[in-house]
UniProtKB/TrEMBL annotation:
<dbReference type="InterPro" id="IPR002938">
    <property type="entry name" value="FAD-bd"/>
</dbReference>
<keyword id="KW-0285">Flavoprotein</keyword>
<dbReference type="InterPro" id="IPR012733">
    <property type="entry name" value="HB_mOase"/>
</dbReference>
<keyword id="KW-0274">FAD</keyword>
<dbReference type="GO" id="GO:0043639">
    <property type="term" value="P:benzoate catabolic process"/>
</dbReference>
<dbReference type="InterPro" id="IPR050641">
    <property type="entry name" value="RIFMO-like"/>
</dbReference>
<dbReference type="GO" id="GO:0071949">
    <property type="term" value="F:FAD binding"/>
</dbReference>
<keyword id="KW-0503">Monooxygenase</keyword>
<protein>
    <recommendedName>
        <fullName>4-hydroxybenzoate 3-monooxygenase</fullName>
        <ecNumber>1.14.13.2</ecNumber>
    </recommendedName>
</protein>
<dbReference type="Pfam" id="PF01494">
    <property type="entry name" value="FAD_binding_3"/>
</dbReference>
<dbReference type="GO" id="GO:0018659">
    <property type="term" value="F:4-hydroxybenzoate 3-monooxygenase activity"/>
</dbReference>
<feature type="domain" description="FAD-binding">
    <location>
        <begin position="5"/>
        <end position="348"/>
    </location>
</feature>
<keyword id="KW-0560">Oxidoreductase</keyword>
<dbReference type="InterPro" id="IPR036188">
    <property type="entry name" value="FAD/NAD-bd_sf"/>
</dbReference>
Amino acid sequence: MKTLKTKVAIIGSGPAGLILGQLLHNQGIDNVVIDNKSQDYILGRIRAGVLEQSTVDIIRELGISERMEREGLVHNGFTMIWGDDYQRQRIPFTELTGGKVMMVYGQTELTKDLLAARNACDALSFYDAEDVTPHDFYSESPRVSFTHQGEAYQLECDYIAGCDGFHGVSRQSVPEQEMTVYENAYPFGWLGVLADVPPVSDEVVYQHHQDGYVLCSMRSSTRSRYYLQVSLDEKLEDWSVDRFWTELKRRLPDDLAEKVVTGPALEMSIAPLRSFVCEPIRFGNLFLLGDAAHIVPPTGAKGLNLAASDAKQLSDGLLQFYNQGHSEGLDQYSSKALERIWKAERFSWWMTSLFHKLDDSAFRQKMQLSEIHYLAHSKAGQTTIAENFVGLD
Ligand code: FAD
Ligand code: DHB
């Protein structure tokens, strides 16, 4: 058994773990990242695409924004479409929020930049680790055990950061009676296609359609990302990419349908939608970050951005502790992060409830259309959407 020591053991090498690791490393705070998958596997995951201003600022602070500045697409608005007559309204979020922008830059690309920075510095990381387990986090000497390339390791540390996503081991290691879980499952999912075809619009489009929500997004001027609301009973194997393009064009208004360029799918998947929060998100010397602590449905594009904000907040608390010797930031991590998390949970739940086909009730659909119409034509309504979309301070 090999014993190692570090200040912060980070379980999980997604955006939350890598951002936290790099923020700490840049300030000279020793940390070790442990993931149970390989770097290639991690880079193959296709997920988020839209970064809030605050996430962009964190990437800049990390000094790894060069490719994002060059290849990312700065967005100042998005379009909402609704109703049988395909009404539409652009929400000029930059104008409505005193200049805040969104950056379209794929999570895959961001992860590539974060991994490159981690690999280029002398910080220790373990990939393809097995049996990763946090221990003794209610004591002053927490540790993480794992096996790597057949060798057993004990990593002794001051703090453990659980950044291992919704299905990870960190949250599951906490005794059930120590947390309260708030959860809402939705009876539908998102069927997503990534394809090397020019996007139908140069800004993101959210469409309410009587047969289910449509989202037109992108990764670049030559790579599109589309999503269709589907029932949870749908099986991926029943969806050819041709069937996807036909259904997408059927739901979109004619002028956009005509602009859809079809092509082979680089990736096609069905993601279930879920709202989930566990409270608190600190257990002794174990902190939970990102999807390990909370999940939002993707309508509103908040998940990755929340993970980045958690990492920034915990890193600030740890810097305060190691550099100034007081633990105020760490003590407030859970309550302060949860305030922000619940606001994003509310917005994501609300946007999901507003734009998706919830059931067969014609009345509920009328209520949705009326609410969208009201929001679209009210400056206050537009501002509410805009300030939540770009991210609340
Ligand atoms: P993850 O990315 O899940 O990383 C967790 C890491 O922990 C992984 O590398 C995993 O291998 C590792 N791990 C898991 N278990 C263990 C273990 N037992 N031991 C060690 N390591 C472990 N968010 C946005 O902000 N904007 C968007 O536009 C957006 N769009 C989305 C679209 C879709 C279709 C989906 C599915 C999600 C979207 N999200 C979006 C959400 C976003 O992708 C997630 O919120 C984000 O990945 C969370 O990052 P994380 O680091 O917390 O977790
Ligand atoms: C994506 C874009 C969004 O606006 C959103 O809410 C979810 C996902 C995307 O590009 O993947």
